[in-house]
From TrEMBL, chain A:
Keyword Transcription regulation: yes
Domain RNA polymerase sigma-70 region, chain residue ranges per copy: 28-94
Entry similarity comment: Belongs to the sigma-70 factor family. ECF subfamily.
Domain annotation RNA polymerase sigma factor 70 region 4 type: ranges: 121-172
PANTHER family: RNA POLYMERASE ECF-TYPE SIGMA FACTO (PTHR43133), RNA POLYMERASE SIGMA FACTOR (PTHR43133:SF51)
Annotated PROSITE patterns: SIGMA70_ECF (PS01063)
Alphabetized InterPro entries for the sequence: RNA_pol_sigma-70-like, RNA_pol_sigma-70_dom, RNA_pol_sigma70_ECF_CS, RNA_pol_sigma70_r2, RNA_pol_sigma70_r4_t2, RNA_pol_sigma_r2, RNA_pol_sigma_r3/r4-like, WH-like_DNA-bd_sf
Protein known as: RNA polymerase sigma factor
TrEMBL record, chain B:
Origin species: Ferrimonas pelagia
Pfam family, one: DUF3379
Domain of life: Bacteria
InterPro entries in the cross-refs: DUF3379
Protein name in UniProt: DUF3379 domain-containing protein
Higher taxonomy: Bacteria, Pseudomonadati, Pseudomonadota, Gammaproteobacteria, Alteromonadales
Amino acid sequence: MLGRFGKKKAASSVSTDMISKQRRYESLVRALHGDLFRYAYWLCHDRSVADDLVQETFLRAWKSLDSLKDEKAAKAWLITILRRENARRFERKRFDLTDIDDVQVADSTSASPEQQVEDLWLRQKMAQLEPEYREPLLLQVLYGFSGDEIATVLELNRNTVMTRLFRARNQLRDALEIDPADRGQRNG
Amino acid sequence: MDELEFRRRLYAEPNSQDPQVQAAAKETAGREAFWQELKGLDQKIQQAARIPVPDDLADRLLLQQNLTVHQQHKRRHRWQLAAAASVAFTVGLSFAIYNTPHDDLGQHALAHMVHEEGFVATIDEQISLASLNTKLASMGTTLQQLPGEIFYANYCDFRGVRSLHVVMGSAQGRVTLFLIPKQGELTLPAQFASERYQGVGQDLPAMHLALVGTPEQELQPVLDDLSSGFQSL
């Protein structure tokens, strides 16, 4: 009976903690799941794998949510977890590398047909970028991270990051300039 | 800032707020246009990067987390249950150990009864008060009177203590009296019982008196009578 009383008190404080943690987690999920899914997709080029990665990431995030003191750091924190999960995926299992042309690239439903075609084409080009170029580009474009922030997340120095960003855009731009004719052919 | 550096900087960061870059953009004609073009490219990249997200992803994430929490709760409940059970088990066990007949003179007397019940029930050696007192004298006491006849009186061993085993008649019928000199740390409870016998105990200055009979017998008055009759030598 004594135990009961004690438990009741403890349980109520635990449950208020749980509720506030629950709220934090919920807002974290709602605010950040979209871009995280996109980032995951660009890491693995597979919607269902990306889905799994995001699930794993948020599960881990829930478990160590208490260690997240600064809500502003949440984005970088989640990306770090996601990248680790992605790396773990490769530890577990070596995938056969597929040629990127065979991979179905995500379709957009929101844009106009013409825009769609252009997006699709640009997506293919982005998918063809070296991962080491693609990642900083995505962090900059999707998350609006500065060079320093990207450097922190990717554990690189800032100069390397800037060089990779330069090369990433350079390659995309070159591809855009070379390919217009090809573009029509592929998507027409 | 030369052209190459300017372009490198913009390629790396089309939305640069760097005043150096801003100033450099105004240095040469065409640089602003180049910058705009690059911003256009960046918008396209941005749009291309924004692949559609599954509509239900957020809900699934929350569901998954809810399930995890639920399971953790269940696991914790199971753990608590296990802890409670082990505490209960320990308490029960220690009660059982505490309540098991352990070594006191009462239990010893009862065991003695069981051990000797065969002959004690029928024996009649017709011991006189005088011969009983002779035996009692070695314990430093005498008895003034008896509640009834004495059927048997002899020394016996109570856990290494030489004691006197007396079977006598009383108003309550045949009863057994043990006189155990105080030695060692054994104690005699005021009352003790087993399935077949019950007993009452009393401490005199130099010895314990234990009177044992059947459960139907009123032993306490007999014992009171007896104990008042003892006189130390």
